[in-house]
Amino acid sequence: MVPYYDDHYPPKYNKDLMLLREDLIGELQAINQYEAHAAQAGDPQVRALFMEIADDEKHHVADLLKMINRLDPVQARLIRERVCGYYKYDAKDNG
């Protein structure tokens, strides 16, 4: 068995978790779009507006991830380990 999983995983269907993940995708796509538009904008004020909006979307990403982590403990553990650096890398690890 994969060490991250236990008898309670995967979680039973959770509509809230599904909705949060779908919205996370949308926020990430929005960040890409606003940053691309900022790069294309000729007017510095327009560019600054696009970057400000992109930054707002990044706050939304953080809020969504926080709630996703609350609802999915395995996801939370992987974020802590792989993103926050609490994971001790083993060269044999393929993940």
Automatic annotation (TrEMBL):
CDD domains: Ferritin_like. GO terms for molecular function: metal ion binding; oxidoreductase activity. Signal peptide: none annotated. Transmembrane segments: none annotated. Residues 20-89 form the Rubrerythrin diiron-binding domain. InterPro entries: Ferritin-like_SF, Rr_diiron-bd_dom. This is Rubrerythrin diiron-binding domain-containing protein.
